[in-house]
Each structure stands twice: as structure tokens, then as C-alpha cells.
Amino acid sequence: MATYDTGAARRATMYGSGDLSASKLFSGHFINFGYWTDDVAPGLLNRERRTTSQADLYREVLRRTDIGERDAVLEVGCGIGVGAALALQEFGPQRIVGLDLSDDQVARAERINADVLIANPGRLSFRRGSAFAIPFQDRVFDSCISVEAAQHFEDLTGFVAEANRILKPGGRLTVATFFTTAEDAARHLEPLIETIRNGIDVVAPIDSFVQALRVSGFELADVESIGAHVWQGFDAWMQQTGFDNHWCRNWLRAYQDGQLDYYIVLAVKPSL
Predict the structure, then answer these.
(1) What positions does the domain Methyltransferase type occupy (predicted)?
(2) How far is residue 199's CA from residue 180's CA, in Å, rounded to a whole number?
(3) CATH code (residue 248)
(4) Which of 73, 154, 168, 244 is deepest in the core (most CB within 10 A)?
């Protein structure tokens, strides 16, 4: 229980008064490792390229989710809301709601995306709420996405059950984050990666997440490793911006050692 409490408290500070989105690590925009498709050697990157990599991760998720113009979309763990705004502007759902546990993040999302909110009345909104008790009625969303937030969810089974509940029959759940590749991998990663050691990240095995989806009634559509497009680019950015010792440079090492990877997982709620 102490680890859970400590990790939750650290996350609350990190995303609250700490405003992680303002960090150079994330170029002051999105909060994810990024999806990198071209030359990522240190010294060749700039802030715009880093921001683009993070937007591209959202685009990869949204393309796989196959969002339609009449869809209602929920993002769980929306942070400062720039991903939800991108989804609205580039993929055109009828409406999208960004949900976040942090009051501070919801306030930032509303402030940062004020122009988009004004230009699209009723189509974009932000709300405070837990991934384990999503504050919406049953069967109201066509799609649910979560981009690099599920590594903070202590109860993935609870999240999956809630996602299933709020989705309409035929609805899609798309999750992008990092998972371990074996049951005992987290134990080996704790000495290497600070955020796993201190409980900020509660990274789970990919097989256990897939099993949780199936137990909750989802049909698994795809489990895709995208580590080749994530870890080296993120490591190059850390080198270039002087984060050699912050958050550890061991993410790439752990991936190369086969202990963790980054995945996009797509599941579908069966139609009635």
C-alpha cells in the first residue's frame, strides 16, 4: 500500500503543481515519448521536431481507431488536452471529451485550447474524473482512446471494465503505452528506471493487459509493437537536451534487452 500511496502522490504533484507538460523533455506540449519516423541522431532534433513526434503518436492511435464524423470520443488521461484538440481538428468526430484525474490539468486544457473550444461549441470539452470510475452513463461513446496514460493506472482491469461500460456496442478502445514483455520484468526494471522504482509508473505485462481486455468482454483486434519508432528517438532527444541522468537513459536499454516495449492495442466491444 505504501508504494501505491507514494506513487499516486508523486503523480499528483508531477501533473499538478509540477506541470510536467512544461518540461523540455516534452517540448512544453504533449506528454508522451513520441513516434519518430526519420533521422533521430542527437544534434539533428529541435523543439518543433520533438512536438511533431508527440502529435504523430496521437495520429497513429487515431488512425487505428477509425474515427467517423458522427462519433463521440472519450480520451482517458488527456493531460493538457492538445491531443484531444488535434483529434477534433484532424479527424473530425462529432464530439470529443478529455478526461483527466488532475484538476490542474483540466484547467490547463481549457486555457490552452480556449480558441478551439470557442470555435467548436459543444464538440470539445474537458472533465475531471478517474479511469476507474468514468463519470458518464453506459454506452455513450463510439471510441475510447488513452495515449501514454495507462502506465499510471494501478487497476488496469478496472479501467478496461469502465471503458467497456461507456462504449456503445461495436465501440473501439485504443491504448498506447509501454508494457513489460514478461511477468517478472518489472522487478528487473526497478533498478534501471527511476519512475518504475518509485511507483510513478506501474507498468504491467502486455499479456496481462490483453487478458484483462478479454475477460472484460472485448474482442482483441490488434496488438502492435511500435518500439522501433519510439525508444531511439526519445533517447536521442534526452541526450540532446541534457537529460542524461533524469528519468534515466535506460528506457532504450530496457527495450533493447527485451524487457519492455511500446504498444498500440486495439480492442472492440462486440455488437449486440
Answers:
(1) 74-174
(2) 15
(3) 3.40.50.150
(4) 73
